Amino acid sequence: MESKSSDENCNNPNSELHPSKLMMASHFLRALFRIQHTTTDSSFAGRSRKIRRAAYASMAYSVGTKRSWSSALLRKLRSRSRLRSPNPRRAKYAALPGKPRVARPQQREMDQAQVLRELVPGGTSMDDCRLLEETTDFVRCLSTQVRLMQAVVDSVSI
Amino acid sequence: MSSRRSRISEEEINELISKLQSLLPETRRRGAGRASAAKLLQETCNYIRSLSREVDDLSDRLSALVETMDNNSAEAEIVRSLLRS
Q1: Enclosing H/E stretch for B45
Q2: Does the beta carbon of A6 lie under 8 angstroms from any beta carbon of chain B?
Q3: Largest Cα–Cα distance in chain A?
Q4: C-alpha to C-alpha distance for B30 and B34, rounded to whole angstroms
C-alpha cells in the first residue's frame, strides 16, 4: 500500500468523520458499558485498568493490521488476555504503552530514536524511516483517543 | 526484513519529519526552520509520554464516573462532540 493512500485512512487531519475515528469511539463506548455492568473486579483500580486497556484496544482495533504499531498492540492485548493474571510481575513483559515501571536515569545518553522505539508499539524492530511513519500514525491515533476520552468525561460530568 | 533506507530519498525523509513535527504541540510555536532531528525525537517522546499519562488520568476519572453513566445520552453526546471537534 502506498503511503499516499494510507494518508486517506486514519491520518487525514481534516477528516473528522473518518470511519476509524467512529470505530474507535463505538468500540471504546461499548467497552465502557461492559465495564459499567461487570461485577468481577469492580474496584476503582480494577475498573481504571480495564478502561485503560479498552482505550488502547479501541485504538488498535480501529486501525487493525494496517499498521505495525496497531498489529503489535493487538498482539500484546491478546497475550495479556490469555494470561488473565492479576500478578503485576507476569504482566510486565506485555506492558501496554506509557507505563515504565522503572525510572530511566540513562536516558540522556541513549539515542533518542531508541527511546522512541520503546514508546511506540512494535518500534524495536523498525528502521528509522518506518519508525517515523509509524510514530506519526500512532501519535495521531493516541491524541484522538485522548480527545475521545475527554469527550466522554465531559458528557458525563454535567 | 530488507533495509529500504538506500531507496528512500532525502525528500521523503524530510516529508516524514515535517509531518511528525506538525503533530507536536510545542513546535507550532517555533519560528522558521526545522528543529534538529534529535530535538524532534525528544519532543515526540515527551509528547507520547504525556498523552499516555492523560490516558491514565482519564481512565481514573472514567472509573469514578462510570457508575453514573446513562448509556443512551452519553453516546449521543459523544458523537455530537466528535462531529463538532
Answers
A1: helix B37-65
A2: no
A3: 47
A4: 9
Considering only CB atoms, A29 lies closest to which of B16, B49, B75, namely B75
Tell me, yes or no, if A25 comes closer than 8 A to chain B by beta carbon: yes
CB neighbourhood size of A142 (10 A): 23
Enumerate residues 19 to 78 of chain B having a beta carbon within 8 A of any beta carbon in chain A.
19-20, 23-24, 38, 41-42, 44-45, 47-49, 51-56, 58-69, 71, 73-75, 77-78
Contact B62, A150 (CB under 8 A): no
* CA B59/CA A98 separation, integer angstroms: 13
pLDDT tens for B26-71 read: 655 555 455 677 888 999 999 999 999 999 999 999 998 877 766 6
Q: What is the ipTM of this complex?
A: 0.77
User: Where residue A109 falls among pLDDT bands split at 50, 70, 90?
Assistant: low
Which residue, among A85, A62, A45, has the nearest Cα to A10 in the 3D structure? A62
**Which three cell numbers, joined as nine digits, stand for A85?**
493474571
Is the Cβ–Cβ distance between A129 and B16 less than 8 Å?
A: yes
Single-letter residue type at A78: R
A135 neighbors A52 (Cβ within 8 angstroms):
no
What is the 8-class DSSP label of residue A124? G
Chain A, residues 66-125, CB within 8 A of chain B, namely: 97-99, 112-113, 115-116, 119-120, 125
